[in-house]
Design a protein that fits this description.
Jelly Rolls; five-stranded antiparallel sheet; mainly beta; about 140 residues; 1 helix; three-stranded antiparallel sheet
Length: about 140
């Protein structure tokens, strides 16, 4: 599986910020998607100051096999099926198990994370709120 992967070195001076899954964030691809031939993606995601509601604030799942998030700056609150509300702060990390229903409740204006996901291309689907939901809709 990894025999065809390439070496990559992403220089901060060459960072390019683009639109991505959510309009309220900017994304910086770290070169892992290309180097792993799409097996993984690693990117920095940061709040861009836009304030609007989007689908990720509804209950949803990601169709992926791995999702790791490390908070680099700020904070966010998420609600996870069976796990309740979790506040993620600078330095915190989560291994978000595949297929877990969750939703974002709030985030700080300086929220910034490193996210690593497999595969690089994955679907996000809106789902019904689980019976364990505790936050007000």
């Amino acid at each position: 599986m990894t025999d065809n992967w390439d070496f990559s070195h992403k220089k901060v001076a060459e960072a390019v910020w683009t639109d991505g899954l959510r309009e309220i964030f900017e994304y910086c691809d770290l070169g892992i998607k290309g180097a792993t031939k799409g097996d993984y993606i690693a990117h920095i995601i940061k709040a861009n100051g836009k304030e609007m509601k989007d689908e990720v604030q509804e209950w949803h799942v990601h169709d992926c096999t791995f999702q790791f998030v490390l908070v680099l700056n700020g904070w966010a609150e998420f609600e996870y099926e069976g796990e309740g509300i979790r506040r993620l702060e600078k330095g915190d990390c989560i291994n978000q198990r595949p297929g877990i229903p969750h939703r974002e409740i709030a985030y700080s204006k300086d929220y910034e994370v490193l996210e690593i996901v497999a595969p690089a291309e994955f679907a996000t689907r809106i789902v019904d709120a689980p019976a364990s939901a505790v936050a007000a809709e």
